Amino acid sequence: ERLSFHGRWMGIPVGFGWIEVKGLVELDGRRAYLIESEGRSNDLLSTFYPVHDVLKTYLDADTLQPLRVEKYQREGRYRADEVVTFDYTRLIATYTSLLNHSVKDVPIPADVQDLLGACYWLRRHADQPNTTLTLNIYSDEKVFQTDFKVQDRTALELRRRGTFDCLLIEPRAAFRGVFVRRGRLWIYLSADARRLPLFIQVATPWGPMSGVIDKSSFSK
Question: What is the spatial distance between Cα 154 and Cα 152, in angstroms, rounded to a whole number?
Fold first, then answer.
């Protein structure tokens, strides 16, 4: 499965990206699903703030939990190249920077997911309106307990794509019991069996941002 998206900031096109399940691979003697995502700024945004982010996740084929995560981030002058490996015997995620070679062990719960794995976990489990799902998500050397409030079904109209029956979901993340406020986020999943992420809307201090699925992704 490969899903492509276009991003907008305050209604202005600013970039594009995709997320793809590449298939089964072998990682340290274990079968794993390789999932890749990439996001890029368009020519307009790149003139003053170029963005090129790549994220790779290896999910255990049996448990669908992350075994290894790789992140290569280029945003303006910011750079990050890092690898995280997950040890479920010791309940430790080991973060390694490929730039300064620093290493850090982060305690994790047994039921953790990474960001890409959480996307597919949500698509598998968010099938009932007016419910709340809870998931532990590893990101940026921390584990966030995240509640996904699945609201009522709603109709979503997408230009040149049609109108879709959707489940509207709002996540809220907490670190050590304190809610993390980085802007509100809403996810519109199609209410059919595929539960495609059709539209994502984010309210930020710099204005509203959104991502909409490309028409070509519906048939894949």
Answer: 6
Q: Closest Cα partner for 4 from 16, 21, 22?
A: 16
In this predicted structure, which of 24-28, 76-80, 126-130, 202-206 has the lowest mean pLDDT?
202-206
Beta-carbon contacts of residue 48 (< 8 Å; ≥ 6 apart): none
Angle at 103 between CA 178 and CA 145, to 5 degrees: 20
* pLDDT score of 179: 53
Q: How far apart are CA 34 and CA 61, in angstroms?
A: 10
Q: Which residues have CB under 8 Å from 104's CB, separation 6+?
A: 94, 95, 141
Ramachandran angles phi, psi of 192, nearest 5°: -90, -170
Beta-bridged to residue 52, according to DSSP, are 40, 74
Please choose, from the candidates 25, 106, 120, the residue with its C-alpha nearest in 3D space to the C-alpha of residue 64. Answer: 120
